[in-house]
Amino acid sequence: MAALFGLFLFSFFACIARAQVPANQTFKFVNEGELGPYIVEYDGDYRMLGVFAAPFQLGFYNTTPNAFTLALRMGLTRSESLFRWVWEANRGNPVGENATLVFGRDGNLLLAHADGRVAWQTNTANKGVVGLELLPTGNMVLYDSKGNFVWQSFDYPTDTLLVGQSLKAGKTSKLVSRASEKENKDGAYSLVMEPKGVVLYYKSKSPKPLLYYRFPETYSNEKLPVDQLTFNCGPERGDGYAYPMTVEYFVANSSVGGFSPARPKYNSTLSFLRLGIDGNVRVYTYDDNVDWGAWEMTFRLFDGDQYWEESQCHLPERCGSFGICEESQCVACPSSHGLSGWSKTCAPEKLTSCEAKSFHYYKLEGVDHFSSQYTIGSATNEVDCGKKCTSDCKCLGYFYNRDSSRCWIAYDLKTLTKVANSTHVGYIKAPNH
Ligand SMILES: *[C@@H]1O[C@H](CO)[C@@H](O)[C@H](O)[C@H]1NC(C)=O
Ligand SMILES: *[C@@H]1O[C@H](CO)[C@@H](O)[C@H](O)[C@H]1NC(C)=O
Ligand SMILES: *[C@@H]1O[C@H](CO)[C@@H](O)[C@H](O)[C@H]1NC(C)=O
Ligand SMILES: *[C@@H]1O[C@H](CO)[C@@H](O)[C@H](O)[C@H]1NC(C)=O
Ligand SMILES: *[C@@H]1O[C@H](CO)[C@@H](O)[C@H](O)[C@H]1NC(C)=O
């Protein structure tokens, strides 16, 4: 059997010699605080896990003690504060000390816990893989003898798209937010490529995730659904002075539309688009021409300044578990005793039981639920809308638009948006003490 080569190791002390090591190599991950999380044990020696292609590097990181994620980071200098993690392998399944990362002779790249349980793998055993390479675009690839990519990290985004990376039908067709700064597991938000374009969902207590945004440009050919969405950036034709970013839709490799989140006036090739912990979508750009503050937020969907960008009030959790939002600020905490000033502790009153005699409703005028803007609600009269909520244990309140005679049942209250029109009303359940 032909020897397989692939993982390139740089010596920890001299990051120049590019050593090829046999594919059947086990890197024992050592959690050595002093040496940093990129150090692996190899041949009884401590070395850097040397999968590197400037400005990207493969390594391990953690946000809670001894729970490590294998990930790719981006940044040009060695200063920790300048790095951003842009891809991760084992979200939701962190490894601890003595975990092993094995690039097997069979072509499989496998991360295992110390006890041997598989934490993550590429599932590429016996598929002709002959090597592994990290490309300068940030795409980590396993290739066969003809140079075809058998596996690529670009096909498995989590919450981030790098320039040139796509969501693809049949592969990964959505981004899922991270739960919190500390917890690296799936959060409540997703950015989904659908047949007509991109939408944002919030996973609440309702049976179906709630739509909280639809991107401006949609495409409408029922027979040929969008099958790819690509984040890109490149110099403008002509002067090449500005670098427009694009989110482009494709059907069978042909572009059918899209939109441009930002147009920085410098080389912004080193950018990434991320669905954040708070459900906002941002683009961050790295400009290595400055010594300080090399990262810049070049786009923010909620509270941006383009005509199609949205107020922060439309982020489901802008006001935490409960609050009224106006012009991006949380301005009031509603309760059955009236409105008071908002703080992070603002929460709906706890119901004692779901029997109709144990609660009543209080009314809020001039508010919308965050889901009212992009879901049409049901066509019913106000009384029946109330009955629907009363007979549903999980319903915490209902929202009614008297102009359009539309009804929304809420399983989560979260952020309510203040609207000028008092024909938009909300009724919130409160306990009868
Ligand atoms: C490396 O190869 C040897 C012999 O082919 C095998 O016994 C061993 O289990 C392999 N190690 C790993 C970590 O795959
Ligand atoms: C890791 O390996 C070292 C050396 O074999 C051992 O002393 C240590 O207990 C191991 N740690 C865990 C968490 O398995
Ligand atoms: C799209 O392009 C890829 C790569 O060039 C090719 O493999 C694939 O068959 C194309 N798909 C269609 C539907 O044309
Ligand atoms: C823009 O930046 C990228 C990444 O650093 C680099 O590869 C490319 O050559 C740059 N383009 C120009 C025109 O300088
Ligand atoms: C409320 O909405 C109705 C119907 O859309 C409209 O006729 C009315 O002018 C609005 N009132 C205010 C105060 O905006």
Automatic annotation (TrEMBL):
Leader sequence residues: 1-19
Keyword S-adenosyl-L-methionine set for record: no
Protein keywords: Disulfide bond, Glycoprotein, Signal
Record GO cellular component, one term: plant-type cell wall
CDD domains in UniProt: B_lectin, PAN_AP_plant
Gene3D superfamilies attached to this UniProt entry: Bulb-type lectin domain
InterPro entries reported in the protein's UniProt record: Bulb-type_lectin_dom (IPR001480), Bulb-type_lectin_dom_sf (IPR036426), Pan_app (IPR003609), SLSG/EP1 (IPR035446)
Domain Bulb-type lectin stretches: 32-155
Domain Apple: 354-432
PANTHER family: BULB-TYPE LECTIN DOMAIN-CONTAINING PROTEIN, CURCULIN-LIKE (MANNOSE-BINDING) LECTIN FAMILY PROTEIN-RELATED
Protein name, as recorded: Bulb-type lectin domain-containing protein
Organism: Rubus argutus
